[in-house]
Amino acid sequence: MPNRHSHSGFFSPLVVQGIEHRFASVHEYVRPKLWAHAIQPQYAELRAWINDQVDGFDRMAVGELLSRLGDPARHTQVVAELATGAAMRTHGYSVQFNPTIDDLTPDLIVTDDEGHRLMAEVWTRGLAEDAVSRNKQWAGLAQRIRKVPAPVALAASAAQPGGAAPPDARMRKRMEAELRRWLIEPRRVGASYRCDDLIFRVVGTTTTGYAELLPIREAAATDRKDVVEAIERKVKKYRRLADRHDMPFIVVLSADDGTGLTADHVDSILEGNNTVTMNIPIDAVGPIDSGPIELRMTDAPPRFDPALSAVAWLDVNNGADAQLVAWDLPTAARTVQTVDAD
After folding, report:
1. For residue 284, what pLDDT band results from cuts at 50, 70 and 90?
2. Average of pLDDT values for 5-22?
3. Which of 260-290 are b and which e, b meaning 16 or more Cβ less than 10 Å from the residue's Cβ?
4. Domain coordinates of the chain in residue numbers?
5. Which of 93, 117, 204, 267 has the most CB atoms within 10 Å of its CB?
6. Global pTM?
């Protein structure tokens, strides 16, 4: 019998308190999903499920799992791996996480009741690093404006049609100083003030006695190349392992909030379409830039190495009700029973 971990899951009261303290000075709308999962009431079921999953790991494996769950940059990836395992179990598979096989550690090896094994790798689409950086800069502006002693709520918009880049530290300091001077006199709702590439408008009042900037988030885009290259990187790493052990191999795709990637997008890409998905928040003020788009001469579906048996999409939901939808590939050397919920 495995030696089970002794404490209750990952989100213990002490860990939650530490996460709350760790991100207390970070503006709420740029706090990582780790914070949301630990604190926000709508994630109570997911929190309980994650705790149950951690308690199911033996003592040898749980330390590494806890480390990854506590890392804001890897948290949602680990949750997606756990949810993939949960979805696989609903289809009768037993699940092994991160086994070492021939010096490689695939995310999951799942085994059916006849002993047939399947290897799965999970890729979670997160916000691009530059979008995360820009969101933090916008949050930095909000923190500066919170120092202005005027009880007004402000909305910012770009002064030019091309949008506005987030101000750097020097510009944020100057904007704070200019808004202080402008707000010495009471300003009515609708009053506006231009500072550099931004126009600030009074849209309401605050109860703190200080100014508050409404959240600003960057737009995000996902295109065909992002998805195909992510799958190909997984295949390149694990195709020899799949061939050597004659195992079907699937790549499971998931996405963080606000990235624009959806199951419909994946379906369109696998059909051969040059699909681009954009997530444009209503509070975005920056330029909408999807990056360079690859022009393709045909609408032929992407062709993957025959070691890849299928591509799947994961909806994490509350964990226990995670769902997988899979697309079998005609080029596959080994087929796999569909893991669709149907």
Report:
1. very low
2. 85
3. bbbbebbebbbeeeebbbebebeebbbeeee
4. 1-71, 130-213
5. 93
6. 0.81
